[in-house]
Amino acid sequence: SSGQSRGKAERMFRLMDEFLKNDPMSLQKDIIHHVEFTVARSRFSFDDFEAYQALSHSVRDRLIERWHDTHQHFKKKDPKRLYFLSLEFLMGRSLSNSVINLGIRDEYADALAQLGFEFEVLAEQEGDAALGNGGLARLSACQMDSLATLDYPAMGYGLRYQYGLFRQIIVDGYQHEQPDFWLNFGNPWEIERVQVSYSVKFYGTVEEKASNGVKYHVWVPGETVEAVAYDNPIPGYGTRNAINLRLWAAKPSGQYDLESYNTGDYINAVVNRQKAEIISNVLYPDDRSYQGKELRLKQQYFFVSASTQDIIRRFKDDHDNFDEFPDKVAFQINETQPSLAIVEVMRVLIDEERLAWKRAWEIVCKLFSFTSHSVNPEGLEKIPVDLLGSLLPRHLQIIYDINHNFMEELKKKIGQDYRRLDQMSIVAEGTVKTIRMANLSIICSHTVNGVSRLHYELLKTRVFKEFYDLWPQKFQYKTNGVTQRRWIVVSNPSLCSLISKWLGTEEWIRNVDLLVGLREHASNPVLQQEWRMVKKINKIRLAEYIETLTGVEVSLDAMFDVQVKRIHEYKRQLLNILGIIHRYYCIKNMNESDRKKVVPRVCIIGGKAAPGYEIAKKIIKLCHAVAEKVNNDADVGDLLKLIFIPDYNVSVAEMVIPGSDLSQHISTAGHEASGTSSMKFLMNGCLLLATADGSTVEIAEEVGSENMFLFGAKVHEVPQLREKATSEVPIQFVRVVRMVRDGYFGFKDYFKSLCDTVEDGKDFYLLGSDFSSYLEAQAMADREFVNEEKWTRMSILSTAGSGRFSSDRTMDEYSKLSWGIQPCKCPF
Ligand code: NBX
């Protein structure tokens, strides 16, 4: 019979081989096939969107093929696997990235050309998958790309929100939020797996039972919801490996509550069951504050429980001794949102697998590594005990038990130091008793990671100082990185070709360290000329986008100066805008001959404010109010333009970043854990204007601080500056704030509270005290920009120095130092 099945396998293999050929003719047939039978349009009449759909399905087939093979290969080799748990993934578009990683971009472009379509135009049809807020979520996406490319046996787990991050629309300069129902037109990049589903329990009670004198607990749930898997293949570049991102959707449980049907109210019974789906309905749009919301906690546990069941099921398929679990499984906890996984694994081991507490605990302690993305102790996640206890009664008991054991152990080490014991306890006493998820994560993880060196220093000395003193060996850092596949190859094809030409190889796409090879050519006039040409192409693309979007025509000779990221007081978009007002004021008060010397600027700002974050929303409005005045002032003309790009997201970033000359990363020192967009700008040869915060410190070490515009207070200076009752605020600062306050840009009352945030003595983010050095850095950028040769050289050196900031390096470091996993390459 094994001969028979081998015969069958070979036959299948031949069939597959015939199905998925990649020559232009086969691709055309394939696309047309999908037009007819998947999209169900006539092959004689279909529009760009339908062509995009058919094209994606054809690509999807090729992804599935590799994804199956990778799955089989991992199963056969049974390596230790990494499970990457994150409540957010900001994947953006998939089409271009997929065909590039599969190595068939040009074949598809040819095939489409012969059908009368342009690949780029169809790629623009795709909407973004925006299942995340900002840096943390995009980081997860970059890391998945690297894990696949480097052949690591990894899998991502997350939630399949029906509504991703809200769409931002601007009405009269104010932000409005609209739902992002991204699944409206179908999603070809996912595979629904109705057969892969698990029951997730909530509420109810815990009963204590005993068998043969051994006590155990049974959780009798009050509600059960089904988690259904949706798999998203993630193809590696230059490898056959394609790994899985498994996202869970909530569905009504299959276990019928017979009673409610028997009461005769059939319609209400059905409607009530349907309510289960709300768990995975919507992504929470705050990227820093935790409010103890029940639905949010439900989302967390829903995702954690389904993932854990899936992971344990896979382990048990091939293993029967849980002592081997840590040899086969590593869990990565992205921020604290997935940290209930720790408690859930503990619960399953003791209550369901009936392991003794001690043995279960030893296993759990070897499984988890935790990465923090926060610097602000006030921002750490705390869950009210009442909420947790009612939703997850058994978990609360286990958390108390973990905490009790920890406290006992700690007392032995440090004695009755109650202040310290209190700070380190998982349970925080207070008017509202809460569970500190970070403490839980640290206590139960073998590694605690920071996302940059500076962040790690802050974790050790401030945020988690008490824990560092106890367990210094647990603390590490892995400086963030981004994938050069998406951020150069996909988003900047002209630069990609230019780099490959000058390095004489495309190998840098897999081994980004090779970019240093550009250094020796940095002053070569031929490369410089071509380099500027590429920048011009990207600026044209961006300028066209700006014009269609805002109607403002911008000059290509101007310096494109960009700040795009979530709007936050600590990120100081307000500093940027006040700097623009200063520039405007100066231009207005110049004579004609001085105006001729002004370096023209196009200032571009983009980003979303959390819907409840009033000050952030006022910053957006101020940006529009200033733009309105400046852009329509005939005295100013092309010397200064201010553009707000609405609905900033991954695909907008792919266009904005390559078209920038200068980019701003100007957070108050000590507030940005790492920052990752700086790395994308750097790769694309944009110069950075930055404070010494997060990863910019390390970027300066790589590219040389002489090739950046650094300014502002250092981390160690910030506390003293804040202490000072009044600081030496420059007159320029007082003047620009006054202009806003006095209604120079209108909306006087509306901007009052915004101005109050930077009043002397209340200026927590130190805009006033950093203002002079900010203006100096800006003036320096102006001076260098007119020196074309020097600027181009700095630009080339930026790209050349960006190699360390690839997520490939980050993933190698995690694999070696935290997860203990090795590559597992699927043969071609
Ligand atoms: O994570 C960000 C940091 O602010 C960046 O400095 C860092 O580069 C990036 C990646 O490490 N943090 C972040 O984006 N946090 C969130 O998005 C977030 C979302 C939900 C939530 C808390 C934080 N409840």
Helices, strands, pairings?
Elements lengths: L1 H18 L4 H14 L10 H30 L3 E5 L3 E4 L2 H8 L2 H11 L3 H5 L5 E3 L3 H15 L4 E6 L7 E5 L2 E5 L12 E12 L2 E7 L2 E7 L2 E13 L6 E11 L5 H5 L3 H9 L19 H25 L6 H4 E6 L5 H13 L4 H8 L3 E4 L10 E3 H7 L1 H22 L3 H7 L2 E2 L5 E3 H8 L2 E4 L2 H11 L1 H6 L4 E3 L6 H7 L2 H11 L21 H26 L8 E6 L8 H16 L3 H4 L5 E6 L7 H18 L8 E6 L4 H7 L5 E4 L11 H7 L3 E5 L4 H8 L5 E3 L6 H6 L7 H11 L6 H9 L10 H20 L1 H13 L6 H13 L9
Parallel strand pairs: 1-4, 1-12, 4-11, 12-13, 13-17, 17-18, 19-20, 19-22, 20-21, 22-23, 23-24
Antiparallel strand pairs: 2-3, 5-6, 7-10, 8-9, 10-11, 14-16, 15-16
Helix pairs in contact: 2-3, 2-5, 3-4, 4-20, 7-34, 10-12, 12-13, 12-15, 14-15, 21-22, 22-33, 23-25, 23-30, 25-31, 30-31
Bound molecules: ligand NBX.
Description:
This protein has 828 residues and is an alpha/beta fold. Among the domains are: 78-93 and 128-178 and 191-379, 3-Layer(aba) Sandwich (Rossmann fold), CATH 3.40.50.2000; 534-808, Rossmann fold (3-Layer(aba) Sandwich). The protein has 34 helices and 24 strands. The strands form six sheets. The protein has a nine-stranded mixed β-sheet with strand order 7-10-11-4-1-12-13-17-18. The longest helix is centred in the first third of the chain and has 30 residues, at 48-77. 49% of the residues are buried. The mean pLDDT is 96. It binds ligand NBX. Residues 133-137, 139, 287-288, 290, 335, 373, 451, 480, 672-676, 694 line the site of ligand NBX. Allosteric enzyme that catalyzes the rate-limiting step in glycogen catabolism, the phosphorolytic cleavage of glycogen to produce glucose-1-phosphate, and plays a central role in maintaining cellular and organismal glucose homeostasis. Its EC number is 2.4.1.1.
